[in-house]
Fold this sequence. Notes:
The structure holds two protein chains of two kinds.
Chain A: E1 6-7, H1 11-16, E2 21-24, E3 27-30, H2 38-47, E4 50-53, E5 58-63, H3 67-74, E6 87-93, E7 99-109, E8 115-121, H4 126-137, E9 144-147, E10 152-158, H5 162-166, E11 182-187, E12 190-195, E13 204-210, H6 214-225, E14 231-232, H7 235-244, H8 279-288, E15 292-299, E16 310-312, E17 318-328, E18 333-341, E19 349-354, E20 357-364
Parallel strand pairs in A: 1-3, 4-14
Antiparallel strand pairs in A: 2-3, 4-10, 5-8, 5-9, 6-7, 7-8, 10-13, 11-12, 12-13, 15-18, 15-20, 16-17, 16-19, 17-18, 19-20
Chain B: E1 9-10, E2 15-19, E3 24-29, H1 31-37, E4 40-44, E5 51-52, E6 57-63, E7 67-71, E8 76-81, H2 89-94, E9 103-107, H3 119-129
Function (chain B): The glycine cleavage system catalyzes the degradation of glycine. The H protein shuttles the methylamine group of glycine from the P protein to the T protein.
Family (chain B): Belongs to the GcvH family.
InterPro entries (chain B): 2-oxoA_DH_lipoyl-BS, Biotin_lipoyl, GCV_H, GCV_H/Fam206, GCV_H_sub, Single_hybrid_motif
Amino acid sequence: xxxxxxxxxxxSWHRQAGGKMVDxxxxxxxxxxxxxxxxxxxxxxxxxxxLFDVSHMGRLRFDGVGSEALLDHLLTRRVSDMPVGRVRYGxxxxxxxxxxxxxxxxxxxxxSGQRYHLMVVxxxxxxxxxxxxxxxxxxxxxxTLTDRTELTAMIAVQGPKAIELCDRLFKVPPSRxxxxxxxxxxxxxxxxxxxxxxxxxxxxxxxxxxxxxAPRVWENLLLAGRDHGVIAAGLGxxxxxxxxxxxxxxxxxxxxxxxxxxxxxxxxxxxxDRSFIGDEALRQIADAGPPKVRIGLLxxxxxxxxxxxxxxxxxxxVIGRVTSGAPSPTLGRPIAMASIDAAxxxxxxxxxxxxxxxxxxxxxxxxxxxx
Amino acid sequence: xxxxxxxxxxAETHEWVDAGDDGVATIGISAFAIEQLNDLVYMDLPExxxxxxxxxxxxEVESVKAVSPLYSPVSGQVVEVHTELPDNLxxxxxDPYEFGWIIKIKMTDASEVEKLMxxxxxxxxxxxxx
Lengths: 371, 130
């Protein structure tokens, strides 16, 4: 079977802008656009602002009494204490404590006063999470779960100028939101969910609009920032930006084979006084100490260490592997995140086996870049 | 004198070959491939004296996003390597056919060059890919 990738509501814009399209988690999306390249798009985000089509991310809506209890049962962090307008990062784990996905949950209220929770999941995990939640719905009969992904589009606007430039476009300006807050607003009479969140290490916001409104909204955002160096950026820049910001990516730093404590996400696991799927496993891991640790590495020289390269200790033992690696456009040198044995966590010097050649690498604090 | 790209031969994997009368082939990567790779950050080249066959990996170029192997379009021995190139990858984009030469191979079978694509065939491949 060879199914063509799905397209986002911004597909024709991407193609007209010379987007180099690839299949990413079942969606056709641009790696980069014509005329610039990953580095230029990356730098635009660090110095001005960049727009990203993130419509491939899954959007699952929880309505009804029991939504909070259900989410509390599924997530490593409590949701039931979130007031309207709050956004929270958390993880869904299996019973063994392996990570099924990392997600953002927003508590929202419509203008007519209807409250609901919206969970944004990774594109590659959308079907898996949908199926994972289904059997639990029987225990929470008041909850209605709907998949809003295909009815809506999602746009990230990220960079130091993002908020200021786009503020005047919205009925409730993004600058009124604090970090990790969200609201339902309007852009030129079109409904939109705006949250002050992102995945680049920059200030900015993420926007969810109806699919049919997306091209117009995208154009409005670009127009607003046109004279200030705001451009569209593809998946390539999104990946180098999030890596510089030290943010984990599902399938790389996070998998079902790794627990969140080993992935350095203990802040996102509230184990005290709580019961949720995977809590016992995570408590045991916390008590024994996580077997792995996620670290930042600076490989010497110009050659980037890529995902899958072995990390080697000073005495020649393979003690982990690179989970993400790329040249950092901001630092002008290669950077890498790796998962290594916790027993080696105090070491500062390692070697990385880059396709048969050993390269020295020094441990560094995460994130690599902080605004 | 600038290299006449219409007289070069091309591999499917985007290496160009300038086969000299002395049996030495100069090899680089095409402007199309460099444009596609974009944002080059690293290049790894073979040692002088290495024997290679058609299709052997002779090095790699890395862009921000990915690693791309370089394949030898001919058989023979590496007789010269452009050692300045890895430190000046920006210039590769400006001048892929002169400054951008990568290695020279003393060919063991010059007829292999005839099996490579001519300029028209290569342009067709690129237009279909692009």
